Amino acid sequence: MDRDYAQYLLKKTRQDYNLIAPQFSSTRRFVWRGLESLAKYILSREKVLDLGCGNGRLLQIFKDIDIDYTGIDGSQKLIEIAQKTYPNARFRVADALNLPFPNNYFDKVYSVAVLHHIPSKELRLRFMSEAKRVLKKEGLLILTVWDLKRLSLTFKFTILKAFGRSKLDFKDVLVPWGRSCQRYIHCFSQRELRHLTKKAGFKIKEVGTLKMPEGKENNIYIVAGK
Known about the structure:
- About 30% of the residues lie in helices and about 25% in strands.
- The strands form two sheets. The protein has a seven-stranded mixed sheet, with helices on both faces.
- Strand 8 and strand 9 (about 220-225) form a beta hairpin.
- It is α/β, with parallel strands linked by helices.
- About 35% of the residues are buried.
- This is Methyltransferase type 11 domain-containing protein.
- It holds the Pfam family Methyltransf_11.
- InterPro entries: AlkB_tRNA_MeTrf/Diox, Methyltransf_11, SAM-dependent_MTases_sf.
């Protein structure tokens, strides 16, 4: 993908989520069944980064665990909602590709349904490399991406790409949010996510599929050590 176009898509994604923040947050007031199992990797008093925290709902799965939590997101509007909903938690607007934290800082990095919004192989590798950088030596990355199975969308954008009518890469789509916007999504497979994780220097411990409620996309998840 052209680098300038990738930067345009990053900016567009931030703008899209600022635009739809109230509606988006209202559909994600609670952690969906399936994501709750991700809490098992946390130990008490650990430093945890929620990378792409949105409205902060992942905090709900840690409610019975004493942790040092930090949530970051590129959307100012979603961070405002998160801070209002969870006033005792620490949130900030930050760039996932240039994390404002020192090396070896967090015990765990969680990233739920974020990586598929990052355009281009180059920037997705940078995302993973930044997550690895801020993890402690024995730290874990727990990450999910959509297991997108919308054949009409993927077929449409594959045809456009094949005929030179799209700047997107193959396996990229634009997913509508009502009439408000079209969100950039990269359609991952387990194989591709494994490959990217290894390329970033992680040691894969677990890969699988999280079943989401009916009407929601299932998630591919990966657990990897530094």
